[in-house]
Amino acid sequence: MSRNLTPAKIGLLVLIQLYTQGAVPNDGVVPVLDFLSSHVLGRDLTTPTSSPDDCWARVEGTIRLILSVRDFEQVLSPFAVADRLPGRRLWDRFLETLWSIDSLHALQEFIDRLPRLLAKSRDQLRKLAERGEEPPKGVLLSRNSPFGFFVRKCYLEFTRLQFDHAADLWKAFIKYRQPTAGYWRRRNPQHSRLSFDSVLMTGEHEWGDNTDEIAVVTYGNMLLGGDDGDASLVSSDDIESLLEMQVEAITRFGQRVPSQLKEKFDHLLKEGHSVPSLVHYLEFQDAYRAGDYTSTFNELHRYFDYTMQNRERPLSYQHALMNVAVVQSDLGCHKEALAMMLETIQTARENRDTVCLNFALNWLFHFGKSHPGLVRELESNSMLGSGKEMLSYLRVKAREMGLSVLCSSALIAEAKLGMANGESISAALENMVRSSQLIVEHNMTPMIGSQRLVTTSLWDRLGLASMSTMTCEVFLRCHATHSAFEDELKATSRLAGLLAGRGRYEEAFQKMEALGQNPLRSARASQYWHVYRGLLKLRRDLHRDNLEASDHLLLQLLQAGPECQDPDLVLIIDSIHIEALTRRGDFDAAFAKIERLIASLREDDRDINLRIRLLLSKVHLFDRIGRPEKGFTIAIRAASMAWRARLLSPLWQAIGAVAHILNALREFAAASRLLVAVIPRCLEADNSFTVGTLYSVLADAWVGQAGQRQGQQQALKRTEFLTRANEALDFAFQYFSAVEDAGKMGEALAKKATIMRAMGDYGRSEDYAAKYLALRREVVIRNG
Amino acid sequence: MGLSARDAVHLKEALQIAVVKCSERCLYQSAKWAAELLDALPDRADDELDEKPAGGYGNKYVHPAFFPSPDPEEAALEAKELNRYLLAKSFFDCKEFDRCAAVFLPESLLAGVLSKSADSTSPRGKGKASASLSAQSVLPKISQKSLFLALYAKVISGEKRKDEDSEMIMGPHDLGSVTNKQLLVVSRFLERWFSERKSDDGEMPATHGFLEYLYGMVLVKEKNDQTALEYLMQSVHLFPWNWGCWLEITNLISRVEQLNKIAPHMPQNIMSFIFHANTAVNLYQHGQDLAASLHDLLDIFPTSSFLLTCRALLNYHSKDLLAAEQDFSNLLALHPHRLDSLDHYSNILYVLNLRPKLAFLAHLCSSIDKFRPESCVVIGNYYSLLSLHEKAVQYFRRALTLDRSCLSAWTLMGHEYVELKNTHAAIESYRRAVDVNRRDYRAWYGLGQTYEVLEMHAYALWYYKKAAGLRPWDGKMWQAVGSCLQKMGRDRDGIKALKRALLADSYYDSTSSSFGSTGPIDRMAQMDPEVLLQIASMYDRLEEQEEAKAYMELCVAQEDGGAGLGADGAGLGDSVAIHHDSPGGVTSDAETEADKGGEGTGVTVATSRARMWLARYAMRTGDYATALRLATELCQDGVEVEEAKSLVREARSNLEPGGIGGS
């Protein structure tokens, strides 16, 4: 396999030559130049986007060009040739030049003529003038222009070739050109079987029947139709650049190589006979994305074995360790990953590799956040102190070193940490803005994803669902093409979650399904996708009281949960599990689980949001067992915690819970005052179920107040309260039906029927009762 | 020379036996050669000879090659040691030469042989070896076949080690002084063996001839040429079918006279005939007789690649390049896998400037085996033709690394170094070439050229003379000698040499046309104006004005093909002399010139200078009209116009008063 030159490159050279000769017509200039530059520079000029699909398309285009001459035909055949008689296509002209290279010597001459395409340097011009010759005319390529550089490089590479490699190139060229022979013969009647080599053709007169034998001796198996190893169409440079393109796409977008492309590339590799070490890296990445534990480590170690002593890409020990650690943690071997990363930090310190050290520390911080149990003993005696100090240390270091990526990610992490600890929102916002400024300044497109996601969760916490929806939408529309797929997936899931919260399940599912198929071949992404989709379904089933289906799903999710990378998802699964248990009436189990979770959260000092949620579900549990008063302190605590942390959406829930308890304590007026204040704010949060609950509690409060107005003189007042309660129930029913919560809908209907009866409107009461029964029937039928 | 059916059968059998015997002794090249020749023998219908085989019907299908040795004593020994022989043979085939030798001749025995003879030469040296018993050891009694194999393995192992010890080609330590250390042992051993055999009754009993060949070969390597020749002659008398032996003799012969001297002592058979032809070709002989004898041989072996090569080389040496090219081309078609002597083909293609074909040939060679010296030489030649001299040197070097005795590579590398202006390296390469083969005139000539560039004319003259001695009919050599002499100020000798060059050119013309070749060939069809000018200017310096004038006129006359001028080359204007030095006016495009046919060289620098001289001469002698005519011609030719114009003016001014006075 040659190092650089391939038949395809000769084709490109021929095309460049045609272009300089002015054979390309005006309307063909742009497509031809675009084609040339995309292959010469490896870059598309007309559409400079960089979405993953473009990347794959580019890789595929390069492979296609390397393997077949047909690509040229597609580009060239639509155009007429400019410097010949009309009726000839540019493709014919191209073939004419291609077939005029009719012997090894002709190839040599073709290459020798290449410098004539270049503009002369000043020295050369002077020498020409001295000799009294005219400087060359026509289109000349400047020496440092892309084409000029390409031409010079090809020329140099050819002169460097050993003879047998040049001969191999010639053979490969014949092979590459051969598919056009049929077409060329139709155009050129004198074309004969041996036209591919003029020496053979002229020799046929004297050699006679032995010509074939000589040809076979010279060209080997190639002529007999066999596969000839020497004449490979690819060069190692091609393979390497293809590999680099793929690795870049993989690491940047976190996708796997599409299987079709992978197949083609493997074919190319087989043809090339040589395996650069980067291939192992590519395979490692692929196995890693595919979640294939054994081959991942196999390939990773193989890659490091081949590159450890390599001069071109010096890879130090700590880098290798770091990679292994990251992979291990991603594949779920958290303990090993931790040990590896600690070793990395130690080695990096010894070797004074600050970049590596900073990355490792950053990683360790995030790791500690998601797996507090593992790092606990580490933190007590570490010099780094708590997470916050570590982050500020990292930030300062990163700024010193000028590592803007690390700096901005530290800022984001700090903002996240602040929010999780329930600290000042404005501080968190400040951090977000600073990181955003860094990102924009340095145009770090891959960082946008995580920054946007944290912003989304910030709006979520503030209960501004519309803002977070908008942020997600903006990210998906503008930035998703050049950021990692994982971010896109998370943003989409978030959007879907918000839709589901408003009860628009179908739309949510559509959003999830609309994600590309290829990216989902990556194991992690597809796991996340499946879990999230399962969660959405589960929530819907729970609302619909479809306990059997939800059980089924829940079991699966509980299995998949611990393997899942995102600890937040695990907690969501747990809370839904609690809800399911409560719905089924298994209060003991639910209570035990809540207690266990609260204990573990307190120990690990986890996100305050989750703790409040757990407290609220505990309150809810007390309510279900009919002793809401027991939850009073808990509800108050939850409310105050949420208030302090400005966690507005849990705050409204907590207030709802407090109001409910007040109802139970017969403090209806206080409860209704609280609720009336809270409900409008809660409506902003776009969570229909919570709003429905609040309305239903409000209805209870009104009814309670109506009950306190006894006697004739207050009949008017009572009717008014009852009407209000009825209205509130109407709203509650509306919101519950939005999320298709059968149980709550039924409850609302039943309450309405009771109110009607209390107001004396028996007819309507009967109506509601009938509706209620119909609903129950429907639920039973739907759930089988 | 026809061959009767019986003769043909005998020839066939003899060759078959030769192949078997040579392979038994691991003489691969000889075996290959014989087998090739055998293959070239046309098949005849077997009906012609239906005589019964000698050994009755039982032996009908046993070929004579497999009959036991006729010598009963040897046969008994061979039978006895068959096992060990087979072992040794397989070791040899696996290239474990020392192990092969040790099967029959343990190291201790060889050491004994060595130390004993050391004692006899220097009685003072009482080492440990002489104290040991082995000093008195007798030679082992083994068959000649096994002995040959063992000793031959020893020699080959020494050669291999020699190659391994040699430094990089032309590296700082590559002095060419590494020797084969096994030669001494083998030659001592054989010396004793022969003397023991002879000592019985002064008369040597008949041997198979192979040991003589081996001894001869070893002696050649020890530069003991005379004795070597004796033993080799003995060997070919005993067993004429060993081509390797004939080749050794060829290498020993450096002059035709020598060949003619030993010819009567040769056995009279077909091998000797082939040998004679081959040696003559190698000595750059040519002529009707040689061509005829090759023709006869080709009648017997019509497709023999070896003989075809000889014929091609013969054509090449007699400068009939097109015919040579044709021959090689046919050879290629007949034996497309054969690489031997394709390097000569590439030389021919080089001279003919057939670039695509040379590229194709290089590709073919590199496809067959890129690590053969021949392939490397072909590729090197191709690169040299493309003026990529560094690459060419690289490939010649590779050829030499593969085979240090590759003659043409040394010479061609010298040429490349000359092109690269590295005269030191060039001289060294040429010297190596000459050391390998003293008959290579191109290397001698190259040496002369290089020294001429360095302006060391005495050296250059020495080497040119050598080259001219090897090719006395090559005008180029004599011309070189002449101009060298001229530069040294020895005008008389120079004139002689150059006149000889003129003669040589015309000689070639007459011979090459006898082969009936036609077409545009780069050869000296006429007298070279350059040479003529040189002769004339030397005469001028010797102040022999008349001679000088005659040659100058002859030189000018070459412009129109020299027709009508009574010189040897006149009248043979069927092709054109194109001298590589001639600039501008004469194109180097042979075909366009040839189309005009029968024309002279046209105006060249040489003729213009001659004309200028003549004009000046005319001025001196007062022949103003002639001077005016010549000067005007010069103006027309556009060479040295200024000077010519002033001459014209001067001649006019001289003519005017004369003209007025005359009228």
UniProtKB/TrEMBL annotation, chain A:
One record GO biological process: cell division
Pfam families: ANAPC5 (PF12862)
Record's keyword annotation contains Cell membrane: no
Taxonomy, superkingdom: Eukaryota
InterPro entries: Apc5 (IPR037679), Apc5_dom (IPR026000), TPR-like_helical_dom_sf (IPR011990)
PANTHER family xref list: ANAPHASE-PROMOTING COMPLEX SUBUNIT 5
The protein's role, per its UniProt record: Component of the anaphase promoting complex/cyclosome (APC/C), a cell cycle-regulated E3 ubiquitin ligase that controls progression through mitosis and the G1 phase of the cell cycle. The APC/C complex acts by mediating ubiquitination and subsequent degradation of target proteins: it mainly mediates the formation of 'Lys-11'-linked polyubiquitin chains and, to a lower extent, the formation of 'Lys-48'- and 'Lys-63'-linked polyubiquitin chains. The APC/C complex catalyzes assembly of branched 'Lys-11'-/'Lys-48'-linked branched ubiquitin chains on target proteins.
Protein name according to UniProt: Anaphase-promoting complex subunit 5
Record organism: Echria macrotheca
Automatic annotation (TrEMBL), chain B:
Keyword set includes Cell cycle: yes
GO cellular component: anaphase-promoting complex
Annotated organism of origin: Echria macrotheca
Protein name per Swiss-Prot or TrEMBL: Anaphase-promoting complex subunit 8
Domain of life: Eukaryota
Limits of the Cdc23 domain: 11-312
TPR repeat windows: 373-406, 407-440, 441-474
Classification via Pfam families: ANAPC8 (PF04049), TPR_11 (PF13414), TPR_8 (PF13181)
